[in-house]
């Protein structure tokens, strides 16, 4: 079981951590190279952030993936599914090296986009941009509601419902209307149990995102009521 850090020492980056991240990047390259299609770049660039979450920040138990008290991880840009699959492999969720070798092939446990109920450790199906962050908002609201309904007297941090929803979101995610509506609701509801990591790479399928998107995302989220 991986527990949330209690001191800054728990977050120290070691040579082993660096080697693990390098391994994650190589696995991303090799998996895409073998099948001949996919998105290796984002999985490579997000490897340090995803590794930090799974190994040092999130509270979860690969031996009991449905544990109620676990933190939830949502990969909103589902096309970079290798970002998640590789961490599930490194964390012991049951994926094997052969599963990464069969990435994006028929019948594999590692389809092109994460599918809930198909791969252990995938909390929700993502693909359409913006959907994942909206799902994350819903999960955060549900956790708070369940706490109030079933465990209202527990001290803060000691309830099984006091888990955190971690989401990686891309610039493409935050261009979508669904993400704007959900994020506005999250700010209004003051969902302190939701944390989003913003991957602002300025690249889309059409080229530089500045061809269609130039707003100040951080100021927009401050206006929603988020801590930025």
């Amino acid at each position: 079981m991986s527990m949330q850090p209690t001191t800054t020492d728990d977050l120290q980056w070691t040579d082993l951590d660096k080697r693990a991240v390098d391994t994650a990047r190589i696995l991303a390259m090799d998996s895409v190279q073998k099948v001949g299609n996919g998105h290796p770049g984002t999985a490579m660039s997000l490897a340090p952030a995803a590794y930090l979450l799974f190994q040092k920040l999130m509270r979860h138990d690969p031996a009991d993936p449905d544990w109620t008290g676990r933190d939830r991880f949502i990969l909103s840009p589902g096309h970079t599914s290798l970002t998640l699959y590789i961490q599930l492999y490194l964390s012991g969720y049951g994926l094997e090296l052969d599963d990464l070798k069969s990435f994006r092939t028929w019948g594999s446990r590692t389809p092109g986009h994460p599918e809930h109920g198909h791969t252990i450790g995938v909390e929700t199906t993502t693909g359409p941009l913006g959907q994942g962050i909206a799902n994350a908002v819903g999960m955060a609201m549900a956790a708070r509601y369940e706490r109030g309904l079933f465990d209202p007297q527990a001290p803060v941090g000691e309830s099984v419902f006091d888990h955190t929803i971690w989401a990686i979101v891309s610039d493409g995610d935050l261009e979508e209307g669904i993400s704007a509506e959900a994020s506005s609701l999250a700010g209004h509801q003051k969902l302190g149990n939701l944390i989003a990591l913003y991957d602002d790479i300025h690249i889309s399928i059409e080229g530089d995102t500045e061809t269609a998107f130039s707003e100040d995302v951080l100021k927009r989220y401050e206006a929603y009521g988020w801590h930025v």
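The CA atoms of residues 78 and 127 lie 4 Å apart. The helical segments are 15-35, 40-45, 47-57, 82-91, 97-101, 131-150, 177-189, 217-224.
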